[in-house]
Fold this protein.
Amino acid sequence: MNGRCRGARTTAAVAAVAADGLTARAPALVSGHAHRYPDRMTDLRLEELSAATAAAANSLTLKPGQEQFVQPTSYAQAESDVKPSASWPRVVLDGDEVVGLIIGSFDAENAQEELRSCIWRVNVAANAQGRGVGRFAVHGLADEARKRGFERLTVVYEPGTGSPEAFFQALGFTVVGETQYGDHVAALTL
């Protein structure tokens, strides 16, 4: 899964805050079927992006065709309006392996409402997609948004075949608008 505002679909993981970041046990069942990767994705955790994890995060390989959704036009145009201090970059680790990246932004004063509490980017390694990594990352970001007092989390994505729309809908996001560039704005009530 890739791009600004991307992820993967499984049942919700039970999360707990630990000293080293957010950790969770991956779900035993996916859509009512036995988990097909019993030895993988069992101990996911979120950690702040660091020098030690940046190279692995930048090297995540996406599935073919997902590259086109990495940066919606709306985000490319809005980048100059986003404060670096508002950024919330985290990697998703399975053991010591970086399997995902999520970048959120929290700026209650941003002139663009859809950028006040938003998912800026979600990338999940191709070989880790479909195992709950994206869902875990979005839930972690949503928890952080709640802690900061936000009542909704938004995402902007380019619609189309292969887009992340179904993923976000499965998480409870609903389309609430469209940008001037045709990108969808979706929101999740927290």
In short: The helical segments are 51-58, 73-78, 133-147, 165-170. Residues 133-147 form the longest helix (15 residues).
